[in-house]
């Protein structure tokens, strides 16, 4: 059985520079720990990069914000998926790449919990992958709800994880995600 793939979503410089308050300031540390463990186990890693279709966006091609954060940048042999919408499976070839390699289990980390992480995890679950979202290796930004009420980044994060838990994915902590690796 193939090792689970680590999907690192949108850990680009533009996310680090976002002025909107966020939660989970330790997320990048947890992601780096998981990335190091996956590399040591020679398990599959997929780096997902958002490429905006909106001129002037920090994620527009050629802007510094589109580049991966250096400490989380892919190595030459690691797979990179580019997307234009929150869901990393849409028009990216990600599903085929995983299926060809016999990968049936995904561990998802990154940003933002309620957007690209949630969108990707929903599709992964719907496509039949055993999907895990690492709560302490994701983060969200504060956001206004449909009624105009400002919700804290922690509340947005918690609701997104609640939307996923048990229906599309298992939500776990980084320490439990490491158990998913089969070392040796």
From TrEMBL:
Pfam families attached to this UniProt entry: Isochorismatase (PF00857)
Keyword Hydrolase: yes
GO molecular function: hydrolase activity
InterPro entries found in the cross-reference section: Isochorismatase-like_dom (IPR000868), Isochorismatase-like_hydrls (IPR050272), Isochorismatase-like_sf (IPR036380)
Residue span, Isochorismatase-like domain: 5-171
Extent of the signal sequence: none
Keywords assigned by UniProt, alphabetized: Hydrolase
PANTHER family hit by this protein: ISOCHORISMATASE HYDROLASE (PTHR43540:SF1), PEROXYUREIDOACRYLATE/UREIDOACRYLATE AMIDOHYDROLASE-RELATED (PTHR43540)
Name recorded for this polypeptide: Isochorismatase hydrolase
């Amino acid at each position: 059985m193939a090792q689970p793939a680590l999907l690192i979503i949108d850990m680009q410089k533009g996310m680090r520079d976002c002025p909107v308050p966020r939660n989970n300031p330790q997320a990048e540390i947890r992601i780096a720990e998981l990335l190091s463990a996956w590399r040591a186990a020679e398990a599959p890693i997929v780096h997902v990069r958002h490429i905006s279709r909106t001129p002037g966006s920090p994620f527009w091609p050629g802007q510094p914000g589109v580049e991966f954060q250096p400490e989380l940048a892919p190595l030459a042999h690691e797979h990179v998926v580019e997307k234009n919408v929150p869901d990393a499976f849409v028009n990216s070839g990600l599903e085929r790449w995983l299926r060809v390699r016999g990968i049936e289990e995904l561990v998802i980390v990154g940003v933002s919990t309620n957007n690209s992480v949630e969108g990707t995890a929903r599709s992964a679950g719907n496509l039949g992958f055993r999907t895990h979202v690492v709560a302490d290796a994701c983060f969200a930004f504060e956001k206004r709800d449909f009624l105009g009420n400002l919700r804290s980044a922690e509340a947005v994060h918690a609701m997104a994880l609640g939307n996923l838990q048990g229906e599309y994915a298992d939500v776990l902590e980084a320490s439990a995600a490491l158990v998913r690796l089969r070392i040796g």
